[in-house]
User: Fold this.
Amino acid sequence: MFRHACAAALSAALALGAAQAAAPPAPVPTASIPMKKDGGVYVVPVTVNGLVTVDCIVDSGASDVNIPASVFRKLQHAGAIQQSDMLGTEDYTLADGSTERGRVVRIRTLKVGNIVVHDVNASIGGDESSALLGQSFLERFRSWSLDNGRHALVLNGPPSDPAPRVARGGNRPVPAPHAGPADNSGPPTVAQISSGHGGHIRHPPAKASPGETDDDGLSGQYSE
Assistant:
């Protein structure tokens, strides 16, 4: 009787193990965010700190998200950006190979579709700069792609926590993030689709005058 009970228990354990081994992995959550065409490029609406919505070009060659200075000022004047959110300055390599210094700000929330990502670093561009959805947002996901058939940005997996970043300020030298040549093996950026080449859209950051407060100007850019 004891042998029969042990055999039955062993069979049940083996059957349970086999069932668990055969079970498919849990599906990765996927979000598909429709894009719209604006002036020859496709953009995706992005809500910054729950206050301002701006149309962003998906730019995998941009190391950081970039927001125009006009958007930054609106957020600052509304109290949506505090002094503690200012992360100093960084050097950014532009499309022509030159280097420009831009101010960096922490965005508390970036909402794209129904997806909200917290604590995203962004550079501040000039008033006429393009808003860019760069790597500081895109790299937070397990993977991402552009669905050219449906004109949608596809984000796979829940967003990860932000990587630690040390605030820099003043004129301390900082390494310049360099995206290097465009990687044509991966999904093209919207900018590449619209222009037919791998050139990155870059705009020089607005430069603050000596003694000027952080109420205008920034730049930045990068995907998996």
Notes: The two ends are 60 Å apart (CA to CA). The helical segments are 2-22, 69-77, 135-138, 190-195.
